[in-house]
């Protein structure tokens, strides 16, 4: 039965190359504030990003952005608890804007209670490191190999005609890693 809107072709779309990941991250990062030391080429080509899809790159950037907000919240909470310990109120701790947080200092500027400097809400390399720990590739190495074998099998079958049936033995043989005792034949021997 035919279902409209469905493709009757299988398409293999490989994962982005390291250079593709750099392009994806660069395009996505145009809408966020990055620290001046951020190198998208380094991040996109990092081995930590191996196996990342375009969606994984977007998730990495999103998670790094959330890490900035977590850090900001931690600073606000610290300022709030410090204000309460010093006999102040919640309003003494400031509001949610960085300018307001910077302006909420006590009348005495001593080393014991230094003013809170304005907070820069920008993604740093530390935020990306945090994000790399929390965003895993959506396609495992095993799945990548399976899709590549499927692509190769389909490419071979196109050159021979209709898709050839693969026996269960052939499928299992393809999935098994080569045994370490198997040696390649030597020339002349």
UniProtKB/TrEMBL annotation:
<feature type="domain" description="AAA ATPase AAA+ lid">
    <location>
        <begin position="40"/>
        <end position="78"/>
    </location>
</feature>
<dbReference type="InterPro" id="IPR041569">
    <property type="entry name" value="AAA_lid_3"/>
</dbReference>
<dbReference type="InterPro" id="IPR027417">
    <property type="entry name" value="P-loop_NTPase"/>
</dbReference>
<protein>
    <recommendedName>
        <fullName>AAA ATPase AAA+ lid domain-containing protein</fullName>
    </recommendedName>
</protein>
<feature type="compositionally biased region" description="Basic and acidic residues">
    <location>
        <begin position="144"/>
        <end position="155"/>
    </location>
</feature>
<dbReference type="GO" id="GO:1990275">
    <property type="term" value="F:preribosome binding"/>
</dbReference>
<dbReference type="Pfam" id="PF17862">
    <property type="entry name" value="AAA_lid_3"/>
</dbReference>
<dbReference type="GO" id="GO:0042254">
    <property type="term" value="P:ribosome biogenesis"/>
</dbReference>
<dbReference type="GO" id="GO:0005524">
    <property type="term" value="F:ATP binding"/>
</dbReference>
<keyword id="KW-0547">Nucleotide-binding</keyword>
<dbReference type="InterPro" id="IPR050168">
    <property type="entry name" value="AAA_ATPase_domain"/>
</dbReference>
<dbReference type="GO" id="GO:0016887">
    <property type="term" value="F:ATP hydrolysis activity"/>
</dbReference>
<keyword id="KW-0067">ATP-binding</keyword>
<dbReference type="GO" id="GO:0003723">
    <property type="term" value="F:RNA binding"/>
</dbReference>
<feature type="region of interest" description="Disordered">
    <location>
        <begin position="144"/>
        <end position="189"/>
    </location>
</feature>
<dbReference type="GO" id="GO:0005634">
    <property type="term" value="C:nucleus"/>
</dbReference>
């Amino acid at each position: 039965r035919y279902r409209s809107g469905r493709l009757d072709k299988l398409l293999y779309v490989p994962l982005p190359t390291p250079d593709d990941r750099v392009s994806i991250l660069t395009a996505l990062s145009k809408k966020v504030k990055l620290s001046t030391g951020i190198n998208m080429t380094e991040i996109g080509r990092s081995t930590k990003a191996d196996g990342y899809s375009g969606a994984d790159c977007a998730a990495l950037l999103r998670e790094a952005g959330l890490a900035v907000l977590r850090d900001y919240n931690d600073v606000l909470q610290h300022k709030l608890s410090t204000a309460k310990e010093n006999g102040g109120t919640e309003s003494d701790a400031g509001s949610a804007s960085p300018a307001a947080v910077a302006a909420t200092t006590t009348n005495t500027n001593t080393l014991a209670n230094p003013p809170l400097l304005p907070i820069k809400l920008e993604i740093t390399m530390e935020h990306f490191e945090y994000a790399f720990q929390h965003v895993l590739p959506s396609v495992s190495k095993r799945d990548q190999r399976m899709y590549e074998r499927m692509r190769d099998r389909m490419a071979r079958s196109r050159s021979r005609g209709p898709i050839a049936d693969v026996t269960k033995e052939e499928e299992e043989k393809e999935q098994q890693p080569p045994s370490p005792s198997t040696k390649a034949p030597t020339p002349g021997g």
